[in-house]
Amino acid sequence: MLNTDNNNKLLSMETDSVGKVFIRYLIPSLIGMLMMSVNVVVDGIFVGRRLGEIALAGVNVAVPVFSIYMAISLWVGIGGANLYSRHLGARQVREARTVFTHSLTLIFSLTLLLAAVAFLFRGKLALFLGANDETMPFVMDYMNVLLVGGFAITVQNAFSVFVRNDGNPNLSMASLMVTAVCNIVLNYVLLFVLDFGVAGSALALVIGATIGACVLFLHFLRKDSMLRFVAPRLSWALAKRTLAIGFPSFVAEIGLAVFTAGYNIAMVHWAGTVGVSAFSVLNYVHSVMLMMFLGLGAAVQPLVSYYRGAGLQSRQKETIRIAVRTAFGVGLFIFLVGLIAADGIVSLFGSFAEDVHRMAVTGIRLFFIGYLFMGSNFVMMTYFQATDQVKMATWITVAREMLLMVALLFTLPHILGTAGIWLAIPLSELIVMLTVFVYVRRRSGGTLAASPSP
């Protein structure tokens, strides 16, 4: 049963201009995702300044573990949130609450299971991710903490997605901001005051996520909140549908781990530890930029899913048009910043050897070309995912950071040297964007269309 506050919230989604609704979700989503990226970047800045470039490279090798936690939370969280918003659009509140409870239960169970398995084989996992004799101690210290306490990251991230889909993107943003602030303070205390080493940096990340999750529970106090826990009941049919819809988001995060491992391995082969250190700087910067594009997707997803459930195709299409234009504008701005300020960006992470600094600056200027295309790919992946075109959404995620990227990492360095490594992602993003354009043109004559269904 919907009360007046619930009705007003849903009606504003349908009566306010599409641009106004998009901005209402976009700004807090962008800020929230940037705050999430701060968590990893802060680790890099503090570790780099306190413990040096080898420790920084070690943390960078272990970062894919964080990506795995994010992958699980987004796999179930985005899949469940799509179904949740569709049910809200169709005014099916009881079904929406069942999806919410089921998704949180599934996330918690999967995280604990996978973390236990990864902890048992953590040594082999570290070697697979690119650890060598120099970086292994730092990799293990950082990884051990994340594997034990990382479930807090998945719960917070998934809960944040549902709060955003329930019409409260500002609280979702506030939770991520609180997490970032706590992480900054705790990193300083644990590294510079208590001298906990890289393990202290990982511990700061886990504690910050726990506090951020607590902030999200304030959403239950709102009168217009429709999020409610109901009696948990495992449904294989619901789990299958949730995992199918959320699979592209899972692959996107796993792709980030493949990207990091692939670049580390390529750099070790072509440039040694100098290359890995230079890439570690770029990878921290990339995590910030990537989160901006994920923020675009986070703003689009609740709207497209809701409009799909409500049968409002015209608003669904207009949302995507606005999002694609915004993505290109953001990508162009980031590209120009990279060209102009690459030297300053690298210096932010500390004083490195001249060859490391020079390689990182070159890497930023070449790699940032990819941001011209990356945003549009993220927006279209989100659209295809929310409209049950899961195969195309999966193609985007698999191609851009797995198939094409790996193929280019094997071939381009033979032609261009280390410049070929930096250009692997920009070229793969361009190719994927062209395939999306061809797909849309062939499927619907250049228009975005999908039959509505709750």
TrEMBL record:
Q: Does this entry carry the keyword Transmembrane helix?
A: yes
InterPro entries membership: MATE_fam, MATE_MepA-like, MATE_MepA_subfamily, MdtK-like
Major location category of this protein: membrane
Membrane topology, as annotated, equals:
Multi-pass membrane protein
> What CDD domains does this protein's entry cite?
MATE_MepA_like
Q: Where in the cell is it found?
A: Cell membrane
Per the record, the domain of life is Bacteria
Give TM regions. 21-42, 54-78, 99-122, 142-163, 175-194, 200-221, 242-265, 285-307, 328-353, 359-380, 392-415, 421-440
Instruction: Name the UniProt key words of this record, in alphabetical order.
Output: Antibiotic resistance, Cell membrane, Membrane, Transmembrane, Transmembrane helix, Transport
Q: Which family does it belong to?
A: Belongs to the multi antimicrobial extrusion (MATE) (TC 2.A.66.1) family. MepA subfamily.
Its protein name is: Multidrug export protein MepA
Record the organism.
Paenibacillus hodogayensis
